[in-house]
């Protein structure tokens, strides 16, 4: 088996990476073509059962391949949730690899929702796993967690830029527990200056958004460092002083459907940045399966609603 020589820099530019347009540009085109909707691939045990599949790695693979087959060409992106593959161990990871390969072959963009984040040296290994051309686990973009400090994400930021891939950095997540961390006041300003006790820093969410904005400065039509901003967060963008319009990157908005957000929430949450939003829905679409036509109809309905709310 051939292996890269020890010490081979992960930033090696392969011919594939050199010919790939940046993720932000590819996603902007896909959203224009198919509507601003990402369909989540979350093979929950209950969904596998409802589709007549076993709760095994083979069941997860079959489920995922059916979703890709039904939805490629009808949604801007698909988002496999890594946890549902990992729970089946190495065979589950192989199913994720097969899912990503099928999506690549079908021409639909992939966001691997693995929410990785660690100290910089370990983040380098995560970047190699999910963003390097040579990795079978690489999609078009990866969700990452900035809670070890935004700068710890640098290896992923660098490798994504080199290989034409993207990131979605957690900013204002859709779950009700998020505010205890994301609304808190940060200890530093975007320039790294430490705040004194007397002057509270920006909110953590605003700081994360400011870092993403700096990385996307000048990119057109859209930068490749996106944020995760849940569609369920109410007025948290205003409450945290988060400037989403300045980010100039895609905003992945989970929480549509099963978590309760709909057209109204999409229309009111994102302000002037709503044209950059990629609404994301998993269970609400997947429950329409397993018939491919029913899945497609559910995705089309969700995509039309997202288009009305975000681009109407
Ligand atoms: O803030 C976040 C970040 C990620 N997610 C993920 O999106 C899907 C949501 O699934 P639904 O079935 O549409 O509720 C799931 O994979 C989450 O881990 C999120 O919900 N919120």
UniProtKB/TrEMBL annotation:
Gene3D superfamilies: Aldolase class I
Active site: 115
SMART domains: OMPdecase
GO BP of this protein: 'de novo' pyrimidine nucleobase biosynthetic process; 'de novo' UMP biosynthetic process
The protein's enzyme class: lyase
Coiled coil: none
GO molecular function: orotidine-5'-phosphate decarboxylase activity
CDD domains the record matches: OMP_decarboxylase_like
EC number: 4.1.1.23
Region of interest called Disordered, as start-end residue ranges on this chain: 179-198
Keywords per UniProt: Decarboxylase, Lyase, Pyrimidine biosynthesis
UniProt catalytic activity: orotidine 5'-phosphate + H(+) = UMP + CO2
Domain Orotidine 5'-phosphate decarboxylase, first and last residues per copy: 36-298
Database matches in Pfam families: OMPdecase
Pathway(s) this gene product operates in, as recorded in its UniProt entry: Pyrimidine metabolism; UMP biosynthesis via de novo pathway; UMP from orotate: step 2/2
UniProt similarity note: Belongs to the OMP decarboxylase family. Type 2 subfamily.
PANTHER family assigned to the protein according to its UniProt record, in alphabetical order: OROTIDINE 5'-PHOSPHATE DECARBOXYLASE
Name of the protein described by the UniProt record: Orotidine 5'-phosphate decarboxylase
Source organism of the structure: Myceligenerans xiligouense
Gene: pyrF
């Amino acid at each position: 088996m051939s292996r890269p020589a020890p010490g081979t820099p992960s930033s090696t530019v392969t011919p594939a990476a050199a010919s790939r347009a940046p993720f932000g540009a590819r996603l902007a085109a896909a959203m224009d073509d198919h509507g601003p909707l990402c369909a989540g691939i979350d093979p929950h045990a209950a969904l596998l059962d409802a589709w007549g599949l076993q709760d095994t790695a083979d069941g997860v693979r079959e489920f995922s391949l059916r979703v890709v087959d039904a939805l490629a060409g009808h949604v801007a992106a698909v988002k496999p949730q890594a946890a549902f593959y990992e729970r089946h161990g190495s065979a589950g990871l192989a199913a994720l690899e097969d899912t990503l390969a099928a999506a690549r072959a079908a021409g639909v963009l992939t966001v691997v929702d693995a929410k990785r984040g660690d100290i910089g040296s370990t983040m380098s290994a995560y970047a190699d796993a999910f963003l390097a051309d040579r990795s079978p686990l690489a999609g078009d973009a990866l969700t990452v967690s900035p809670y070890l400090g935004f700068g710890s994400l640098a290896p992923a930021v660098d490798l994504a830029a080199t290989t034409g891939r993207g990131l979605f950095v957690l900013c204002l997540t859709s779950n009700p527990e998020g505010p205890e961390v994301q609304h808190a006041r940060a200890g530093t300003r975007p320039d790294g200056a430490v705040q004194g006790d007397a002057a509270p820093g920006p909110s953590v969410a605003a700081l994360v958004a400011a870092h993403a904005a700096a990385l996307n400065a000048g990119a057109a039509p859209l930068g490749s460092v996106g944020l995760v901003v849940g569609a369920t967060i109410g007025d948290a963008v205003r409450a945290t002083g988060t400037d989403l319009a300045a980010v100039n990157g895609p905003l992945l908005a989970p929480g549509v459907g099963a978590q309760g957000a709909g057209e109204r929430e999409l229309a009111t949450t994102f302000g002037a940045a709503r044209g950059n939003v990629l609404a994301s829905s998993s269970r609400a679409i997947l429950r329409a399966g397993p018939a491919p036509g029913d899945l497609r109809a559910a995705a089309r309905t969700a995509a039309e609603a997202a288009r009305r709310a975000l681009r109407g």
